[in-house]
Amino acid sequence: MILVDLTDEKIAGKGRSLSDITFNYNFDNNLTIMPLVKNYNHFQKWLRAYPFYYHIKKEGVELYAA
Predict the structure, then answer these.
(1) Alpha carbon of residue 56 to chain centroid
(2) DSSP strands (E only) in the chain
(3) Residue 20 DSSP one-character state
(4) Residue 53: how many CB atoms within 10 A of its CB?
(5) First to last CA, the chain
(6) Per-domain residue ranges of the chain
(7) What is the structure's pLDDT at 33?
(8) How many CB atoms lie within 10 A of CB 54?
């Protein structure tokens, strides 16, 4: 999961670019990754309600923090 500070509309607008990058990466490295992009505030709001979000918070790896 990739957490960003963009609106849902801006995230949707960048979907095609992310899809192209992901496809190329998967093809070049014989992998299957499917990034999930969410707004940071949305993630925080639903963290306690969604077990999936909880496990990401608990087990995820932070690559970059602003």
Answers:
(1) 10
(2) 2-4, 37-39
(3) H
(4) 19
(5) 16
(6) 2-59
(7) 92
(8) 13
State how far the Cα of 30 lies from the Cα of 66, in Å rounded to an integer.
Answer: 31
Q: Can you tell me the distance from the alpha carbon of 55 to that of 13, in angstroms, rounded to the nearest whole number?
A: 27
Give the separation between CA 28 and CA 32, rounded to whole angstroms. 11
Q: Is there a contact between 43 and 53 (Cβ–Cβ < 8 Å)? A: yes
Q: If you count them, how many residues does the chain have?
A: 66
The pair of structure tokens assigned to 16 is 């095609």
65 pLDDT higher than 90: no
Q: Which two tokens stand for residue 8?
A: 């849902």
CA distance 56 to 3: 11
pTM greater than 0.85: no
- The Cβ-side half-sphere exposure at 35, using a 13 Å CA radius, reads 18
